[in-house]
Amino acid sequence: MTMRPNVEPQLHPARLMDLRPTQMTVGMAEVARKRSQWTAHAKTDGGLFLGEHMIPVVIGPRKRPWLIDHHHLALALHHEGVEHVLISVVARLDHLKKPQFLTFMDNCNWLHTFDASGERREYGALPRKLTGLGDDPYRSLAGEVRRAGGYAKNLTPYSEFLWADFFRHRVSHKRAAMLEPATVADAVTLARSPSARHLPGWSGADAD
To answer: In the CATH scheme, what architecture does the domain 137-196 have?
Structure first.
C-alpha cells in the first residue's frame, strides 16, 4: 500500500521553476489541454483556479520541493507565464541524504523513472526542472482514452503511465503522435479488451 501522509496545506506560493519533477516525461498534448483550461480561467477566476489546484510536493534534501503530481498542469502554467503556484506538503524528508531520499520516494511510488521509450532509467536521469520533461505521446493517448470512457479514473500512482505502456506495444508511434479520433477509438477498444484486465480502472466486459 502506498503511504499517504496527511497533507499539510502551504498558503504561501512556490516558484514553479523550483519544483523538482519526479517523472521523466509528460504527454505534451495533455499539457496543451491544461494550457487551454488555464486560458479559460486566467482573466476571470485565475486566482480561484490556482487555489483549487494546489500542487502536492515532498520536501527533500536542501529543502527542495519535489513535485509528486500535476506535472502536466505545472508545465502548462509555466508555458503560460505563471511563475508561482500554491503547494501542499505531503511529507518532509529533508533530513535524509539524497540516496536514501530517492530510495524512499521510489518505494512510496513517488518516482516514475521511465523514459519516453518506456525504459527504466537511473535516478540521476530525472530532469532537474519542469522544462526538462520529455514528450511521451502514449501518455497523451492514455489521457484521451480515459476521457473517451476506455477506462475509469483510478488513484493508483502513475496509472495513466501504465496505460501508456500498454498502448506503446499495440499502437504505432506515428498514430499515437498524431492522436486522431480513429486512433483513440481503436485504443478504447484495446483498453476494454481482456488483455488490459490487469490495469487499474479497466472497464471491460468482466470488470466489477
So the answer is: Orthogonal Bundle (1.10)
Amino acid at 151: Y
Which residues neighbour 112 within 8 Å (Cβ) at sequence distance 6 or greater?
22, 23, 24, 157, 158, 161
And the C-alpha cell for 93? 524528508
Best CA proximity match to 50, nearest among 70, 24, 26: 70
Q: What is the pLDDT of residues 74-92, one digit of tens each?
A: 999 999 999 999 999 999 9
84-92 and 55-59 beta bridge pairing: parallel
pLDDT tens, 155-180?
899 999 999 999 999 999 999 999 99
Whole-angstrom CA distances from 5 to 49, 64, 85, 142 are 25, 18, 21, 28
Domain ranges across the chain: 8-134, 137-196
pTM to 2 decimals? 0.92
Cα atoms in the 13 Å half-sphere on the side-chain side of 55: 31
Torsion of CA 169, 20, 67, 135, to 10 degrees: -30
Distance from C-alpha of 169 to C-alpha of 52, rounded to nearest angstrom: 36
CATH number for the segment(s) 8-134: 3.90.1530.10
